[in-house]
Amino acid sequence: MDWVTDLPPGGDRSYNSFLVVVDRLSKTPVFLPCHKDYTAMDTALLIWNRVVSWTERFTNIINDRDPKFTSALWTNLFRLFGTNLSFSTAYHPQTDGLAEKMIQDLEDMVRRICAYGLELKDCDVFSHDWCTLLPALLPQHSLGKDLVEIPPKASSFKGMLDKARKNAVRCIEDQFEYAKDKWEKSHANPELKLGNLVLVSTTGFNNIKGLKKLKDFLVGPFVIKALHGENAV
Question: What is the pLDDT of residues 104-113, one digit of tens each?
Fold first, then answer.
């Protein structure tokens, strides 16, 4: 998470900043309008009310060394949640730069909105500044930038489908091998020898008197007098 500050006042509360929170797993960003003078407590409440509701709890937070993020209140609060706090600077080699890249894209999008003035008016003459238009940037940012680029959400969903398909194939193969081993252990081919007594299947016999539905499946026993291969006598 990181801040974008010093923006023109926007919204009903004249916000001049917004906080960017990016989920590292799904790459989903959240844009939270706020004020530059927010304290650590204000930021914690903002995270609690707007982010924790859909992420349950954080296992790790990566942010810069802003005084809000290094304060005793912030560190002790997330220590109670069991959250690991990682502090970094932009483009630090130990981080993935995810929030920094997201902020660059957002700043460019907000800059283009502000380039047309502090307020935009639609056909009904309602005013819209950068703050009220900020929620519309989220789905636009989630779309692919090029015609051939897959949107992040679609790419993430495709990855889950691929994993599910591979897991299903692996489970089917494992079940097939298990059934094969179980069959081979319980259905070993008997070794036929001269003089053995065997039962003969009547499946291919059509000259047996009586109703076919009531005939015995096996008849015998018969004595083996000659062998013709492994299974024919």
Answer: 776 677 667 6
CA 19 to CA 35: how far, in whole Å?
9
Burial code of 99-122, b = ≥16 C-beta within 10 A, e = fewer?
bbebbeebeebbeebbeeeeeeee
Give the CATH H-level superfamily of domain 2-159.
Answer: Ribonuclease H-like superfamily/Ribonuclease H (3.30.420.10)
What does the pLDDT look like over 9-42, one tens digit per residue?
877 888 888 888 877 766 777 888 889 888 888 8
Count of Cβ atoms closer than 10 Å to residue 88 Cβ? 18
Tokens standing for residue 199: 């039962």
Are 114 and 4 contacting, i.e. CB atoms less than 8 angstroms apart?
no
DSSP state of 212: G
C-alpha 106: how far from chain center? 24
